Each structure stands twice: as C-alpha cells, then as structure tokens.
Amino acid sequence: MHEMSLAEGIRGIVENAAIAQGFSKVNAVVLEVGALSSVEIEALRFCFDAVMKGTVADGARMVVETVAGAGWCLPCGKRVPITQLYDPCPDCGSYQVQATEGTEMRVKALDVDSTAGSVA
Ligand SMILES: [Zn+2]
Asked: Going by fewer Cβ within 10 Å, which terminus of the chain is more open, N or C?
C-alpha cells in the first residue's frame, strides 16, 4: 500500500530527528501534502497511527497542511493552477500541463516534548 510506505518513511524521519535532537515524545507531526500528490489522507492517517505504535510518536496527532497544485502549461508558456493531476489548463484547455507544485508530501515540523533541556 502506497500510504503504508509513506507512513514508514515518516516514522524514519521522526526517529532520526528524535536521535539527533534528543526528544522523547512527539505530540504532533505536521505534514505538507500536495494537492497533486495522490496521497489518501484518511488512509495515511490510519497507517500513521499503526506504524507509530511503540515509537516516540506513539499517539501523536497527524496534522495535514495542504499545498495547492500548479503546473506549467506548454501552449500558454506559463504557470497555471490545477487541482488534480492530469487536469487541463484552466486557460486554454490543453492537457499539455506538467505538474510542478503540490506533487509531494513532506514532514514540515514536529511538535515535541523536549527532555534534553537547553544546549546553550
Ligand atoms: Zn494553457
């Protein structure tokens, strides 16, 4: 399942960050999900809860921030907003639109309980 591998990727990022930054509990994981990324949010949420069990992010909330999609229309020679992959250009109706923005999902931020104290 696509979402399961995404959730496992998120877990890897969270665990690496926990080691690097010395936190022991994650309250929330903030994700940026592009409108064109084909990520099923509800499926991802289900996988997220499953793979985070027993980790520092066990029980953490998954917060999703949606990033709008955009593409480059070849006939128009400009950037145009699109809401789904393979949408036609809203200006000229052409399907020669290459998705350029909102195609990815990434971990934007972690809300953590820091136990390490200040390093300053
Ligand atoms: Zn166009």
From this structure: C
76 located within any domain? no
In a domain, 93, yes or no: no
What residues pack around ion ligand 1 (CB closer than 5 A)? 73, 75-76, 89, 91-92, 94
pLDDT in tens, 27-60: 999 999 999 999 999 999 999 999 999 999 999 9
Sign of CA dihedral 95, 65, 61, 11: positive
How far is it, in rounded angstroms, from Cα 73 to Cα 95?
8
- The residue range of the domain holding 29 is 2-68+103-114
In a domain, 91, yes or no: no
Confidence of residue 19 (pLDDT cuts 50, 70, 90): very high
User: Rounded to an integer, what distance in angstroms lies between the CA atom of residue 76 and that of residue 65?
Assistant: 30
Whole-number Å distance, alpha carbon 67 to ligand 1 midpoint, is: 21
pLDDT for position 117 = 47
CATH number at residue 64: 3.30.2320.50
Tally of domains in the chain? 1
In the reported structure, the alpha carbon of residue 14 is separated from the centroid of ligand 1 by a whole-number distance in angstroms of 40
